[in-house]
Q: What sequence folds into this?
């Protein structure tokens, strides 16, 4: 009998019952909620006269609809009536069911996928679910995380378990090391571009290889977060010393014997040497350049020295139609070099790139420079804790001096569910995870890239290869035109 993959082990240790050849009843260690996918679930519980079975294994946060205006946290308010109602309903439901809530004015409020790891809630070996597709983020710490729908939210509240269809296994090995100026964001955009938006459909993806080993825990979160854009049902990195150091630094209860026991268990969370994967890919990290999306799907991407493709060159009519639609929406002619395309807005933040490591990378690019005239650039930290740390390290002051807006935490311009939106026709260099039509505002045009690349776009007013910028601190006039 072949060995087990890491994914297989996580499913096996949380299987309450085998339902049939494809489905199990899966136990859930932690369930995370937000204001927009939970109201119907709580209403369903009330209609059936049920209570939350295990309130202590739930956590909620207001993050998608909250404005990020730079006012003190205690004064944050949601002016939009529908959004305010969503937040008020979540607060009432959490109070009635005894669920912990990071509310609008909580100084620790932030994006759900940022605050959960930073508060030590995510640990190797867990199953963590949330009504948000980017729950795959938690695989960076060796936890099985995936998004669920509203009806499933209700089921977990009532039973702490989920009827779950088991995924197949896909492994991506990344050999070598990423080059200077190339990040985990570039790597994951490259992966999504290479295997396609459906390339991991129905699979749990496990990353391994020297390049993955070299990534920080936060960089692995970026990688796992955006792997869902290839259709993955989960993304995982086996726990190692980097994982242990991160988790123990954020989980003060893991001391003494409890910590020793946890680390001994985490060491078993690896794929067996003879484990079988249904699909395997192998990549060379050294060959990957900074990546930028050009179209309206995360897989419509290219190295920064690439050009917008010609739809007429597509292999079939359906592909030609999809490419033509993307080209028309994004407003770039086929053959246009992506480097040099002017931008109106720059957004740095989101559950993909709103962590302190991301903001440090931005600061290194920005130091001693100014945002280009005519560009509106926003930095939105992923949490109150990240915001405070950036202020303590001088990052916030550096960015403000350069002309960036320093905002309060939240999902912000990742999606058009709050008042941080693009106007029709505006072009944005964005560190978010999706570039769909209207994702950041009706008629808005989004180009996904790394924090360093977005910072470079803010400084030059156009998409540019961050590796071509002169050494930090040189005069702004020496930047590429």
A:
């Amino acid at each position: 009998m072949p060995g087990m993959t890491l994914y297989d082990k996580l499913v096996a240790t949380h299987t309450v019952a085998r339902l049939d050849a494809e489905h199990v009843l899966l136990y859930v260690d932690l369930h995370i909620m937000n204001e927009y996918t939970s109201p119907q679930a709580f209403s369903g519980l009330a209609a059936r006269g049920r209570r939350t079975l295990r309130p202590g294994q739930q956590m909620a946060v207001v993050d998608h609809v909250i404005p990020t205006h730079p006012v003190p946290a205690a004064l944050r308010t949601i002016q939009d009536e529908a959004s305010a109602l969503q937040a008020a309903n979540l607060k009432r439901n959490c109070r009635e069911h005894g669920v912990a809530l990071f509310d609008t004015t909580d100084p620790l409020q932030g994006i759900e996928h940022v605050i959960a790891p930073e508060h030590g809630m995510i640990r190797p070996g867990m199953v963590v679910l949330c009504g948000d597709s980017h729950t795959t983020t938690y695989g960076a710490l060796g936890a099985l995380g995936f998004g669920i729908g509203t009806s499933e939210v209700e089921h977990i509240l009532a039973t702490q378990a989920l009827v779950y269809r088991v995924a197949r296994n896909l492994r991506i090995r990344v050999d070598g090391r990423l080059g200077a100026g190339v990040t985990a964001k570039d790597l994951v955009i490259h992966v999504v571009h290479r295997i396609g938006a459906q390339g991991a459909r129905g699979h749990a993806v496990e990353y391994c290889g020297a390049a993955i080993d070299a990534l920080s825990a936060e960089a692995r979160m970026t990688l796992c977060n955006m792997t869902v854009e290839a259709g993955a049902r989960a993304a995982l990195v086996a726990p190692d010393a980097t994982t242990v150091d991160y988790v123990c630094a954020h989980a003060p209860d893991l001391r003494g014997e409890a910590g020793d026991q946890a680390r001994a268990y985490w060491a078993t969370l690896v794929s067996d040497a003879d484990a079988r994967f249904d699909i395997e890919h192998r990549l060379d990290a050294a060959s990957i350049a900074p990546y930028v999306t050009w179209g309206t799907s995360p897989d419509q991407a290219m190295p920064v020295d690439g050009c917008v493709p010609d739809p007429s060159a597509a292999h079939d009519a359906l592909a030609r139609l999809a490419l033509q639609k993307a080209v028309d929406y994004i407003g770039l002619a086929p053959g246009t070099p992506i480097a040099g395309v002017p931008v109106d807005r720059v957004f740095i933040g989101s559950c993909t790139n709103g962590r302190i490591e991301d903001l440090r990378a931005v600061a290194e690019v920005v130091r001693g420079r100014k945002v280009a005239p005519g560009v509106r650039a926003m930095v939105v930290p992923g949490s109150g804790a990240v915001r405070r740390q950036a202020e303590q390290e001088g990052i916030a002051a550096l960015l403000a001096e350069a002309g960036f807006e320093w905002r309060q935490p939240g999902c912000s311009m990742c999606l058009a569910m709050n008042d941080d939106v693009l106007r029709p026709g505006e072009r944005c260099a964005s560190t978010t995870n999706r570039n769909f039509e209207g994702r950041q505002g009706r008629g808005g045009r989004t180009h996904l890239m790394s924090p360093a690349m977005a910072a470079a776009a803010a400084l030059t007013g156009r998409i540019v290869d961050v590796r071509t910028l002169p050494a930090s601190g040189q005069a702004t006039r020496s930047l590429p035109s």
